[in-house]
Design a protein that fits this description.
With 261 residues, the chain is mostly helical. The protein has one domain. It is built from 12 helices and no strands. Helix 2 packs antiparallel against helix 3, helix 7 packs antiparallel against helix 8 and helix 8 packs antiparallel against helix 9. The model has no long low-confidence stretch (mean pLDDT 91).
Length: 261
């Protein structure tokens, strides 16, 4: 029963991606896909829930946690990007894929995001949809998952809030944010995202859905090796000369005390 439900979610996510792509043709800005990223997981979770006859307490917890995470993140990203045009990452993708990038972006950007979200949503499938084994009530693993999720949410939301305040101060132009959560890790928001998805996986594991580990593993690779830390730090040293010193004394991903040099 799990796999038909899972593929129904893929169809819904693909439809949402195509609708957002149509909007991007009108605005000439594919960066709007960033605002769609976290709501895609809520869409997937809703599909899993609608096709589940009776939602367990674990399913309700998973729905609540992914919704809170997604709402906060999409509001933050939309507010941050509003009025700034297309992000430099997408301008670079556009330049590499002209001519006809407007049509190529449907699969290079929008459908790709939908497929990635679909794969990462596996813990939501395991925690919400029927078919996995495990106690329907909440147990130690569920509470551990909620605790890891909360740690991640605090790091992600707190890091984003601290960075927004830092950038809002004109005196910090060209400077490096190294206070608060940013003193302990160069990417507290990415570390937070990492914890959020491993926390959700623990909920799925409590339901017996060990196979959903594909989701958090993929998210971890994206955050640390593909579109997260690695991509962001490719040229940040050129834009902020003091960043090299920040790199020498601050952990890249997992929090730790600053190093002395």
């Amino acid at each position: 029963m799990l796999f038909p439900v899972y593929f129904h979610a893929l169809a819904v996510l693909a439809a949402a991606a195509l609708l957002t792509w149509l909007v991007s043709l009108w605005t000439r800005n594919v960066a709007i896909v960033d605002s769609l990223w976290s709501p895609m997981f809520v869409l997937a979770a809703v599909v899993y829930a609608l096709e589940t006859p009776l939602l367990s307490p674990r399913a309700l917890v998973a729905l609540a946690l992914v919704s809170v995470w997604a709402l906060r993140l999409t509001v933050h990203i939309t507010w941050r990007n509003w009025g700034h045009g297309e992000d430099r990452r997408y301008r670079a993708i556009r330049a590499r894929n002209e001519p006809h990038f407007a049509w190529k972006s449907v699969y290079l950007v929008f459908l790709l995001q939908a497929v990635l979200a679909w794969l990462i949503s596996l813990p939501l499938l395991g925690a919400i949809a029927p078919g996995a084994q495990g106690s329907p009530g909440l147990g130690a693993l569920d509470y551990a998952g909620m605790s890891v999720w909360l740690l991640g949410f605090v790091f992600e939301a707190g890091g984003d809030w601290q960075l927004s305040r830092f950038k809002a101060d004109a005196r910090n132009a060209g400077q490096v944010m190294d206070q608060g959560f940013w003193r302990w890790t160069r990417h507290p928001n990415y570390f937070g995202d990492f914890c959020v998805w491993w926390g959700l996986y623990l909920l799925a594991l409590a339901a017996g859905a060990w196979w959903s580990i594909v989701g958090p593993l993929l998210m971890s690779v994206l955050l640390m090796r593909v579109s997260g830390v690695t991509l962001l730090e490719q040229d940040i040293g050129e834009r902020r000369p003091k960043y090299a010193d920040y790199v020498r004394r601050t952990n890249a991903f997992f929090p730790g005390p600053p190093r002395r040099w």
